[in-house]
Amino acid sequence: MLTPFQETVYKAVKKIPAGKVVTYGVLAKHIGCRSAQAIGQALKHNPFAPEVPCHRVIRQDRSLGGFKGSWDSSICDQKRQLLRGEGIPFDAAGKVHPSAILLSL
DNA sequence: TCCCTGACCCCCA
DNA sequence: CTGGGGGCCAGGG
Asked: How many angstroms separate the CA atoms of A43 and A57, rounded?
């Protein structure tokens, strides 16, 4: 069961180009929502993975955030591997390198 | 309808 | 850089 809001979010996420990532905030602004937290709620329920690349969505502080509804370190690591496989660079702190972050869609 | 919670974000010490 | 506090919107009970 999907809400109209979730469809909007998923459609926006699918527009994220491979090799790049966006923040929850940017995604929220794009669909006209002022709360990035609402975006997270839609993504954790994501029934379209991996068609909807939720692993390309990260936090404003460049940390990865959660994945597949969990914050577990092992889960978090899977997300990191996926991104690394798409050519996304990471810095020493384990965060996404700024050059790979899209400031808008 | 009210109340709580969340894969968030901004500001200040 | 880290921690605390307030605000944000949508979903579910």
From this structure: 9
DSSP state of A17: P
Reduce the DSSP state of residue A57 to 3 states and report it: strand
Q: Which two tokens stand for residue A21?
A: 């990532």
A33, A103, A100: which is closest to A64 by C-alpha?
Answer: A100
pTM for this model (two decimals): 0.94
pLDDT, tens only, A85-95: 999 999 999 99
Nucleotide nearest to A79 (CA to C1'): B7
End-to-end CA gap in chain A: 27
Which two structure tokens, joined as six digits, stand for A7?
A: 């469809």
Choice among A54, A64, A83, A88 that is catalytic: A54
Among candidate residues A18, A63, A61, A22, the one with its CA nearest the CA of residue A39: A22
Q: From the Cβ of A53, is strand B under 7 Å away?
A: no
Residue A76 designated active-site: no
